[in-house]
């Protein structure tokens, strides 16, 4: 029965789309993603909740899951609206990629717009939580731009379309630095350089950091988000 077949296909697409982003799902279903890796210029965003262990210890399991689900929902919308792909959830952290598989050229700007939207969405999310005396969530976001290798990585049992490389590791490290500098949003110099209209944002040079595999230290910038 063709109708049942189509319904089943839609159901599979829907479930599959919940485990990988809809863009990746469609590329995989249409056999567009090669099994080997492909190099891209991309911007990688990491976002991590502050003191998550502390918050989760004060709540029961259901409340932790409910809180994370509604928080993730808001953050993923911000990523997708700005042409990003949710790469994965790592516990309470989010990894998103801008660029592959479509190869958008303005990926740095897309990543920064997504991050700013995330900061604003978190503020609104916390206002609602405050009204019912629930714990507020705070986070840090780090963005880095450079070459990544994208492809299906894993074992014969479980594959995952993801990006790897130094660009990813540095993005994660920059996110960690938001704790050190007590700020919400830090980008690398390579991301900063790719932003065409810098007047749209408020940047503040924070520091220069040593990056593994690079001779010269690289500058990092705080992006100030107006309330």
Topology of this protein?
Layout: H1 2-19, H2 22-29, E1 38-49, H3 52-57, H4 61-81, E2 84-90, E3 93-98, H5 107-131, E4 139-154, E5 159-164, H6 166-180, E6 185-188, H7 189-194, E7 202-209, E8 218-224
Parallel strand pairs: 4-6
Antiparallel strand pairs: 1-3, 1-4, 2-3, 4-5, 6-8, 7-8
Helix pairs in contact: 1-2, 4-5
Characterization of this structure:
The chain has 227 residues and is of the alpha+beta class. It is 44% helix and 29% strand. It is built from seven helices and eight strands. The chain has helices at residues 2-19, 22-29, 52-57, 61-81, 107-131, 166-180, 189-194; strands at 38-49, 84-90, 93-98, 139-154, 159-164, 185-188, 202-209, 218-224. Strands 1, 2, 3, 4, 5, 6, 7 and 8 form an eight-stranded mixed beta sheet that branches. The longest helix has 25 residues, at 107-131. The protein is globular and about 55 Å long. The mean pLDDT is 88.
